[in-house]
Amino acid sequence: MATLHLMVGLPCAGKTTLARTLEDERSALRLTPDEWQLRLFGQDAEDPAHDARHGLIEVMLWELASRALVLGTNVILDYGFWAREEREDYRARSKQLGASSEVHFLDVPADELLRRLARRNAQRSLTAFYIPEAMMQPWIAFFQKPTPDELERRD
Hints:
Rossmann fold
C-alpha cells in the first residue's frame, strides 16, 4: 500500500530537508511546490500573483501525486499544511485512493523560525524564497499545530 506523507510546518522549520531524507528512506516521489514556483517565476513571494500561482502548482502536483499513489508509489507533499482542515482533506483524498497517510510535523519555536529566516534571507538562493519577517509573523499566529491524533498513521 502506498503512503502519502504530509510535511507540516512553517517556512524554515526544515520540512524540505526532512522531505529529502524521507524521499530516499521511503522510496517516495517528493513534490515541493516552492521548487517548482521558483523555477517558473523566480523570487515572487511579494508579487500579488504569488498565491494564485502557488495554488495552481499545488493542484497540478496533487494530480501527479494521486496518480503515483494509485500506481503504488509513496508520495511526499511538501506543502506546509498549516491548517487541520487542509491536512484532513488530503488524508481523506489519500484514503479514497486506497493509500495510507502520515503526518511529519516539525515543531520549531517562533524565535528559532525567525532566526533561520534571517539566515536564509541573507543567503539568497534559487531554491528557497526570500520572505520578509513582516510576512512571517501573521503566518506564525495562524498556524494550527497538529493534535496527537493527527500524528498517527492512517491506513
